[in-house]
Amino acid sequence: MNDIHESVTIEGDVKLGIGNKIYPNTIIYGPTEIGDNNIIGPNVVIGMFGQDTRNPRYDASSGYIKIGNNNIIREFTSIQKPCYRDITELGNDIYLMQSVHIPHDAIVEDKVVITPMCVLAGITRIMEGANLGMSCTINQFNVIGQYSIVATGAAAMKNVKPFSRHIPGKGISINEYAIKKYGFEKFSEEISNYVFDNKRPTSHEISSIVEKFERYHLESNRLLY
């Protein structure tokens, strides 16, 4: 059972799980799949075609959006269909605050927090546990590493390492808050050596995080902070 306000518009092939709360004036276009226990709206738009200057009127009729479980998607947020890849995808336990822009072909992994008025450019990947500060912008193709943070108002023009903080005008630093929040304290020295000196992690837990990030980092062909 879902709680859907009578003013919500759902058009096309939209699959809904259970336990979703969808607030007034939200619009969802298919093909879209939404899991369980999500809070969406009011005034959220999911499924419009992406904003691409090379092809602003592209055919997005088959562009697929997938949204997982236990997410909060607050008012005036937009989640757009893919343009160059197969999917725009959001994982689980994500918190999108007011007026967040999720563009075409974006991937937002589990436990990400994106605060009010943040803007992502197309084909970006925000990895697990990352935090985007208010009104920051993420450039096209960029990868924001796991458990990192991009500062309020920052423009991230390069990729951001896992566990690091990107603060314009300052050197790279450690996201101590995420290390404590997600229980990585026993790996603090290992994380520090990786972030500051690029030393390879020795534990399986941190190695697997770094290896996943580096795979997407290399694929993106972007520079690194």
Radius of gyration: 18 Å
CATH fold annotation: UDP N-Acetylglucosamine Acyltransferase, domain 1
The low-pLDDT segments are none
Write down the secondary-structure element order.
EEEEEEEEEEEEEEEEEEEEEEEEEHHH
The coarse silhouette is globular
The name of the CATH superfamily reads: Hexapeptide repeat proteins
Described by strand count, sense and barrel closure, the largest sheet is: 10 strands, mixed
By DSSP, the count of extended strands is 25
CATH class: Mainly Beta
Give the integer mean of the pLDDT values: 97
What number of domains?
1
* Helix-and-strand structural type: alpha/beta
Structural features, described:
This protein is of the alpha/beta class. The chain has one domain: UDP N-Acetylglucosamine Acyltransferase, domain 1. Helix content is 15%, strand content 28%. It has helices at residues 176-181, 188-197, 204-220; strands at residues 3-4, 9-11, 14-16, 21-22, 27-29, 32-34, 39-40, 45-48, 64-67, 72-73, 78-80, 87-90, 95-96, 101-102, 107-108, 113-114, 119-120, 125-126, 131-132, 137-138, 143-144, 149-150, 155-156, 164-166, 173-174. The strands form four sheets. It has a ten-stranded mixed β-sheet with strand order 1-4-7-10-13-16-19-22-24-25, with helices on one face. It has a seven-stranded parallel β-sheet with strand order 3-6-9-12-15-18-21. Strand 24 and strand 25 form a beta hairpin. The longest helix is centred in the last third of the chain and has 17 residues, at 204-220. It is globular, with a radius of gyration of 18 Å.
